Amino acid sequence: MSSTTQKIPHGPAQPYATTDDLLEWMRTNFDRYGDIYQASVYGDRVYVINDLQYVDRVLLRNWRNYLRKGQAVKRIALSLGNGLISSNGDTWVRQRRMLQPAFKSESIRLLFTRFTQATIELRDKWRDAASRAESVDVTHDVSLAVLKATLLAIFGDDYEAIAAEFAPIAEESRNLEFVQLCAALRRRIVEIVNHRRARGGSAYDLIDFMMSARDRDSGEPMTDADLGRQAMTLVIAGHETTASVLNWVWHLLDEHPHIEAKLAEEIARTLGDSPLEFDGLAKFTYTNQIIDEALRIYPPLWLMTRRAITDDHIGDYFVPAGTEIYISPFLLQRHPHLWEAPDEFDPERFDAETNRPALAHCPFGAGPRNCIGELFARIEMQVHLLLIARDLRLRSAASASSEFVAGVNLLSRSHFRMNPEMRVDAS
Ligand code: HEM
Description:
Helices cover 48% and strands 11% of the residues. The relative contact order is 0.17. The chain has 14 helices and 12 strands. It has one domain (3-426): CATH 1.10.630.10. Protoporphyrin IX containing FE binds at residues 84-85, 96, 233-234, 237-238, 241-242, 245, 299-301, 304, 363-365, 369-373, 376-377.
């Protein structure tokens, strides 16, 4: 096709102004230009897409041409180094292959008690608050509990030795101090690795799985620097995302008492007083639908970016090499052509067999560069919700605002403050 006939999507003449809310700007321009438009964002030529066929081309059919992340990831690379989130090309292929076994079901099963430990501590704290009729800062407490679960899964019995140093992760905003903190923590991880080598033996945690991993071609283990980068990547990728979903879940349940009651009923019927087991988790259909629905309306990673390596076509549109592609799970998952009443929280929409295309729900991304931690996160969220909602419900004193801030993750603008109440049959 000659360059004169190549079709380029329309779009706003003015570049995106960095003072604008990027998510709102993207949404407004879809209303104006349709499900693909071209724009200038942070000095790059960007195609913003919200059509499943186009997304399929980028994340699945021609994924190799979009293996590079967009410029936005550079900010993350600054904190995490060239770990799995920000690496590209052959480095990414090698890193992904080495990390993948640590995230298989057999590995996550071994981390199960780490998730229950962190959750039971939070449940007990909230039970105490309930007995004293005190309110709790749900956003803050969930963030700490998820950080603990993540650190326990990664560092296992070394948790106590590192907990205090990692604690600021739950508080720190993504600024220069955060970059410095991450660099110091990467060095700390290398110290832990060296202690383990000197100590010998093995542990059931992610550091151990990563230390045992070997490159398929060279047979080499990860270097110390790589172990530091990857473990730090997992802490950051796993913490705020999961904490954000659970924070929204508690808010949504508070706003929809009939859904909360149905959740309690499923837990009483399916779990009762029995211990929670890894193999039983799939039985909690409604609980899992609540999690899927929260992931649909508040996907923490609301933006994925890619960079075209060579020229391509998306639908009829020509994509010159170097073009950045923006895909928002938030906007896809609220697309009125894909979802009925998209802004409503309705877990039962996941009930029926529908012909909805898989990509319409993509909170963990899609294709070979999807979230490596999806199963980890899902198990952690199920454990959290089941063990806490079995004993407690959370109620806000006054109606809380659902406003959000779309930074790196989609967070609630204010912390949710609620009163834990014991279920009558759980006291
Ligand atoms: C609810 C929780 C989570 C959500 C919604 C989520 C979402 C995502 C998404 C959408 C991507 C793809 C980004 C892209 O295509 O640009 C991703 C990548 C990734 N996630 Fe998650 N994530 C979650 C939890 C976790 C956890 C618990 C871990 C690890 C412990 C983790 C580790 C990663 C890593 C390392 C990548 C990069 C994968 C690669 O590029 O090969 N995530 N995540």
